[in-house]
Design goal:
The structure holds 2 protein chains of 2 kinds.
Chain A (H helix, E strand, L loop, with lengths): L7 E8 L9 E8 L4 E5 L6 H8 L7 E6 L8 H9 L1 E4 L12 H11 L4 H14 L15 H13 L5 E5 L7 H15 L4 E5 L3 H5 L3 E6 L2 E6 L1 H6 L2 H5 L6 H10 L11 H14 L25 E8 L24 E8 L4 E5 L6 H8 L7 E6 L2 E2 L6 H7 E4 L12 H12 L4 H14 L6 H4 L8 H13 L5 E5 L7 H16 L3 E5 L3 H7 L2 E6 L2 E7 H4 L3 H4 L12 H11 L11 H14 L4
Parallel strand pairs in A: 3-7, 3-8, 5-6, 6-7, 12-17, 12-18, 15-16, 16-17
Antiparallel strand pairs in A: 1-2, 1-4, 8-9, 10-11, 10-13, 13-14, 18-19
Helix pairs in contact in A: 3-4, 3-5, 4-5, 5-6, 10-23, 14-15, 14-17, 15-17
Chain B lengths: L15 H4 L2 H17 L3 H17 L4 H8 L2 H15 L5 E5 L2 E4 H27 L2 H12 L9 H31 L8 H33 L20 H22 L1
Antiparallel strand pairs in B: 1-2
Helix pairs in contact in B: 2-6, 2-7, 2-10, 3-6, 3-10, 5-6, 7-8, 8-9
The chains are: A alpha/beta, B mainly alpha.
């Protein structure tokens, strides 16, 4: 044994799926020390998940050798089992990992499979729930929990196997921002327990929190190093399929304007350095660019594309008519999913709809699209009430709906049929015209509409391509108003980028968009206006610039909603504490760069 | 958030019924259902109803919640009642319209079958409401354990039942999301005629099926990773042990009531 200290040791491991031309993993050599936190990154299809399944023993390498805890699983069936039991895995979909309807029982599933005695199972269940700090949920039903909590249950279930190595296969990719934060802090906490973590992720923040980053591309290791080394080579982020951290983005953009700044992920450090630069350095290259005006000029009040007037909706059945009407009792209070919301969307604007999980965002989206009808009040699409059955087809032609994970609605035998389904139903096109709509919609979604693609089954495509086909199926209906329910969820950074570009393009083409998002940065980048829901009520609505700067909305302090603020805004505040007051509050990194330049030219050091 | 689907869902509460051994609950429920099929006459049915209501009260399940559970059955009961009412050909004619006649035997049959089905479904629902899917699986495995000697894979079968129950709400949510999405794409779900209807269902059924396959694949992988082999070495965290007081009392009460129901039916 060369390095008996490593808990995972892969030597030149190759794995090929049967029937595939090129191997999913080609010559991977990898080591991990006990207690180390290794992040595996790389674009979709780079072999990350295959690597995870080789490490946890679900797949056997076709060539090369491996040792887990010094044991070679290829030796015998017993050693394979022994190696497997040292590794536990948490997968992407929290929902599909729960085997039962009580949290504690679910955590006990693994120990039961190991054939442990009852006392030991009880001990492990308790310890695992405590390790992820969800003891209070022991008797809850996983179906009632949020995605983040469910993923914590899955982690507890893995820990109950008492593993040496924990493999995390994109555990946060299906979660919203609060869920992601909960899972991340859980992972952080596990490091104190000394367990080795192999963490597959698309998320740059998660990668940078690791001890070591291994980047895969095309089944090979494309890069390997510490987060510090990664940050020092900013071009790597794009190459490795990662988002660039805001700090690196800002430093790089300012460097191009003559600043000298450190490449770091520590915002405080960058802020300090920038404040120093602004106090000492003359800004020579600065050419102040006029600030883009965002939002619609309120020159003439147009008819709103979509409007809610005192709309309410409840999932609870309306109270039954009383049998004895003369007995006066207080009517039971009905919980409203949407409670008296009044909101109007001007044509050609993008409105971000924000709010915590369960605030009623998806319900409001379905009300907008006449998929649910308000139990009180009125919802109008281009002036037509959604409750008016005679106007229903007009409403359908005016407003399109992209639900969460739209790729799950694909059904047809070919891409062409699936994209054409909506336009055919609405009767808006046929023949050559329909073919043109289908091709245009696919192209808009970033897919080249070759005859080969059009004839393929949508189920044979990759995840990102399926999402694009599903979107095209909505865009092909040519509706001027679109409702998008968390369109970035579950996409890799490249996919998210494509989606952002598509939204910008739709807006410039004059579409009215209602965009449900958890990300304040996306709202800052894409939206003209922001509407905020809390427990079914509209608590704020106005220009993105105002709402995203409102501490009652963005910060959790003083009973705020804590929806998060754009990163640039937090950075601006940090600069202000160091005596640098930027002329205007920036919402995006690009705006922040311009503000810094403007400040620099106005306050030249003597 | 979305409305909870009540089928296969567990109502968490601390009650003597919740605490019963699942084997006892399953066995009593099955015997009760058989008794319901045999029961006839007002006294027997009244006693059976009383037993169901008492169980519901003891289980601390709100009556409204319980009633909601029974609602899906209403349509079935209306149809069977109509069939019974209109197609009974014995007894005195009470009312007649053209070829249709309502006879006393028809009314009797309609009432009898409605009450029987209602009671059977009610007790089945109570079992689901008070017992987690894991406990049901454990209970079934306990009850069917003798069959293992004849090579029946009881452990696997129990796991299948448990997982099926656990995924009912998930698939229901999938179905709703897919229906919503296809409606927004202008799907006409009220097709004319059987062929048109089947055609209209394809955009719903196909994604629901692929979704179920996806869940199954993910779950299978997760279970594999957590060491599930279906082997006999698997232990059971919740030991099934009959509590002589609690379970004994339940068995005694159930036995007396069921015998009484049968006796009343024979006399009536």
């Amino acid at each position: 044994m060369t390095s008996h200290a490593s808990i995972i040791q892969l030597d030149d491991v190759t794995f090929a799926y049967p029937g595939m031309a090129s191997p999913a993993l080609a010559g991977i050599s990898l080591e991990a020390q006990p207690g180390e936190h290794v992040c595996i990154v790389g674009p979709n299809g780079s072999g990350k998940s295959t690597l995870a399944q080789v490490v946890n023993g679900l797949l056997t390498p076709s060539a090369g050798s491996m040792r887990i805890g010094g044991i070679d699983p290829a030796n015998s069936a017993e050693s394979a089992l022994e190696a497997r039991r040292m590794v536990a895995t948490v997968f992407q979909h929290p929902e599909d990992q729960m085997v039962t309807s009580v949290v504690a029982d679910d955590v006990a599933f693994g120990p039961e499979n190991l054939g442990l005695p009852r006392g030991e199972i009880t001990r492990r269940v308790r310890a695992s729930l405590a390790a992820v700090a969800i003891e209070s949920l022991a008797q809850a039903d996983p179906a009632d929990l949020s995605g983040g909590q469910r993923q914590c249950v899955a982690i507890a279930g893995a820990l109950a196997m008492d593993p040496q190595v924990l493999v995390l296969d994109e555990p946060t990719s299906m979660l919203d921002a609060p869920g992601r934060a909960a899972v991340r802090s859980t992972i952080e906490r596990l490091r104190e327990h000394g367990i080795t973590i192999v963490h597959i992720t698309h998320d740059v923040d998660e990668a940078l929190a690791a001890d070591r980053v291994v980047a895969l591309n095309g089944g090979r290791i494309a890069w390997e190093g510490t987060p510090d080394q990664l940050v020092r080579t900013p071009t790597l982020f794009a190459e490795l399929g990662l988002d660039e951290p805001h700090t690196v983005d800002l430093a790089r953009q300012l460097e191009a304007r003559g600043f000298r700044l450190p490449h770091t992920i520590d915002a405080q450090l960058l802020c300090e350095a920038l404040a120093d630069e602004l106090r000492t350095r003359r800004i020579s290259t600065a050419v102040p660019t006029p600030q883009k005006s965002r939002g619609h000029d309120a020159s003439q009040p147009a008819e709103p594309a979509l409007s809610f007037s005192q709309a309410s909706y409840t999932y609870v059945d309306p109270p039954h008519r009383r049998l004895l009407p003369f007995i006066h009792r207080e009517a039971p209070r009905v919980p409203y999913a949407i409670d008296c919301v009044s909101l109007a969307l001007e044509p050609g604007t993008v409105t971000a709809l924000m709010g915590r999980t369960g605030a009623g965002k998806s319900t409001l989206a379905e009300l907008a699209c006449a998929l649910k009808l308000p139990c009180a009040g009125d919802v109008r699409v281009q002036g037509a009430s959604t409750a008016d059955r005679a106007a229903r087809s007009r409403v359908r032609r005016a407003i399109g709906y992209v639900g969460q994970f739209p790729e799950r609605q694909l059904f047809a035998a070919t891409v062409r049929e699936d994209v054409a389904y909506g336009p055919t139903n609405l009767g808006i096109a046929a023949g050559d015209e329909l073919d043109r709509l289908v091709r245009d919609a696919l192209r808009a979604c970033g897919l080249e509409p070759t005859d080969e693609l059009l004839g393929r089954s949508p189920h044979q495509l990759s995840g990102g391509q399926r999402r694009a086909v599903a979107l095209a199926g909505v865009l092909a209906m040519q509706q001027p108003i679109l409702v998008l329910d968390e369109p970035m969820a579950g996409l890799d950074p490249a996919g998210r980028d494509r989606m952002r570009r598509l939204i910008v393009r739709l807006r410039t083409e004059g579409a009215t968009l209602l965009l449900i998002t958890h990300s304040a940065d996306d709202a800052a980048l894409l939206a003209d206006r922001v509407a905020v829901l809390d427990r079914g009520r509209l608590v704020a609505h106005g220009p993105a610039r105002d709402i995203l700067r409102d501490p009652r909305i963005t910060l959790p302090q003083n009973d705020g909603l804590g929806l998060g603020e754009p990163w640039a805004l937090g950075f601006e505040r940090a600069l202000a504490t160091r005596g640098i007051d930027l002329p205007a509050a920036p919402l995006t990194v690009d705006e922040l760069v311009e503000e810094v330049i403007r400040y620099g030219t106005a306050h030249q050091p003597r | 958030m979305a409305r909870r689907i009540s089928l296969g869902s567990y109502y968490a509460a601390v009650s003597p019924i919740h605490a019963l051994d699942p084997r006892v609950k399953i066995a009593i429920t099955l015997l009760y259902m058989v008794s319901c099929l045999i029961a006839r006459g007002a006294p027997a049915l009244a006693l059976a109803t009383l037993l169901a209501l008492a169980t519901c009260t003891l289980a601390r399940i709100p009556l409204g919640r319980f009633a909601r559970q029974l609602r899906p059955l209403a349509a079935v009961l209306v149809v069977t009642s109509l069939v019974n009412l209109l197609f009974a050909d014995v007894g005195d004619v009470v009312a007649a319209w053209g070829p249709f006649a309502i006879r006393t035997a028809g009314i009797e049959a309609a009432v009898l079958y409605t009450v029987r089905f209602l009671l059977m479904f009610a007790m089945g629902s109570l079992l689901m409401l008070t017992t987690t899917p894991t406990a049901i699986a454990d209970g079934l495995r306990g009850l069917l354990a003798p069959l293992e000697r004849f090579g029946v894979p009881v452990g696997e079968a129990a796991m299948v039942v448990s997982i099926a129950l656990r995924f009912v709400p998930t698939l229901a949510r999938d179905a709703r999301a897919i229906t919503t999405a296809q409606t927004a794409r202008g799907a006409d779900l009220a097709g004319r005629g059987p062929i048109a209807y089947v055609r209209a269902c394809i955009p719903l059924a196909t994604p629901l099926f692929t979704g179920a396959m996806r869940h199954a694949e993910n779950l299978g992988r997760a279970m594999d990773a957590r060491g599930y082999t279906g082997s006999a070495e698997r232990t059971c965290w919740h030991e099934l042990r009959l509590d002589s007081r609690r379970d004994g009392a339940a068995i005694a009460v159930a036995a007396i009531c069921l015998v009484a129901i049968l006796a009343l039916s024979v006399i009536g």
